[in-house]
Design goal:
118 residues; 75% helix; 5% strand; globular; 6 helices; mainly alpha
């Protein structure tokens, strides 16, 4: 149940980014749910490695480089989604940067508002 709730929260956050950020496009609700699943899997598998590799830069920038890592994860999600035939596009790095920032904020707020699902 918790996994399903997490995917829905990510889908809502990605939908908000697609709606508010020029340069991010999403298709139907189904494509948002599928891209949220891809986003969750990539964040679980690849993001820890990227943060480990970029740890010196993250420390040097007092954590601000994490925003760049999040933008790269969103771009990777869009690229993999395109390969899987999921309708989700990120047109530029700056769109990904703003989108990742918005996804982080919306996801955090929704996680506070929704129950844990236990």
């Amino acid at each position: 149940m918790k996994l399903i709730l997490r995917v829905v929260v990510n889908a809502l956050a990605l939908g908000a980014a697609a709606w508010l950020v020029p340069g991010i496009r999403a298709g139907s609700v189904t494509s948002l749910l599928l891209i949220a699943l891809v986003f969750g899997v990539l964040n679980a598998l690849i993001k820890p490695f990227l943060k480990l590799v970029s740890c010196p830069v993250i420390l040097l920038t007092l954590g601000l480089f994490t925003l760049v890592v999040n933008a790269l994860m969103l771009m990777l999600t869009a690229w993999l989604g395109a390969k899987l035939g999921i309708e989700f596009r990120v047109e530029s790095f700056w769109a990904a940067f703003l989108g990742a920032l918005l996804v982080s904020v919306v996801s955090t707020v929704l996680s506070w508002l929704l129950p844990d699902g236990d």
